Amino acid sequence: MSAVRTEDRTIPGRQGAIPVRDYLPAEPRAGAAPMIWLHGGGFVTGDLDTPESHRVALRLAAAGRLVRAVDYRLAPRPWGRRSKHTPPGHHYPAALDDVVDASRALAAEHGRIVLGGASAGACLAVTAAQRLPGTAGLLLCYGLYHPELPGLPGSVRRRTRGLAGYRQFTPAAVYKMNVNYVGHEELLTGGAFPAGTELTGLPPTLMLDADFDTLRASGEAFAAELAAAGVPVAHAVVPHSWHGYLNRHRLNGFRFALTAMNGWLTKRDAAIARTP
């Protein structure tokens, strides 16, 4: 793996400047599609220094790929007191607009790109790809794709039994988080979440869910939707992992996921090269 140089800058967006961090490999690999990478955080937290953003982008770029992490606008925090120092929140579609604008700028510079993200960032990656025809691939980790958490299938219930309240997302918590993101419950089905919408034409997708994570219910259901829409999808569960495993770079879940991500991306690069 090569050394990586980072460059923080802003790019113009429809609502103002968008902070991004470009990860530039010292030894770019020929044919490696540039990538947009998006952190999670329930749509309300996270930035370019979050390990889920910085550590992942570093590892992806070290394999010879240009990666752009996007510091998209966040929704208001639904807890704590607000003060004059509390940053303003931005409901949907602010974050999505930033991701789409940053992605268009990268594609204009370098051609076809891959979109990827974790948790809330995975949701943003899919909804951005729906608005960006020609996206070359989607890489999604422990994402939330539904306005409400689907019922837990047996495969998920068995792995999360007895873990309620410990790093788990309940249906009520997911609903509150999603309403906070969009601003009003009537907007939950307005395109902010990709499940149940038109998925035909989305690019080949890799989905890596967390083992002990109730959000796997959303991941498994969405993987089935993608397959039913004719989207080539590879879906795997990272063994013995919790939601947010990409924030823990010393653990096996992080290493397992990054190996899978880089391997899948290399195969996508080869497929893109064969595309007329």
UniProtKB/TrEMBL annotation:
A Pfam family of this chain: Abhydrolase_3
Any one GO molecular-function label of the UniProt entry: hydrolase activity
Keyword flag Hydrolase: yes
Gene3D superfamilies in the cross-refs: alpha/beta hydrolase
Residue ranges constituting the Alpha/beta hydrolase fold-3 domain according to the UniProt record: 35-246
Keywords tagged on the record: Hydrolase
Protein name: Alpha/beta hydrolase
Provenance organism: Nocardia jiangsuensis
Taxonomic lineage from the root: Bacteria, Bacillati, Actinomycetota, Actinomycetes, Mycobacteriales
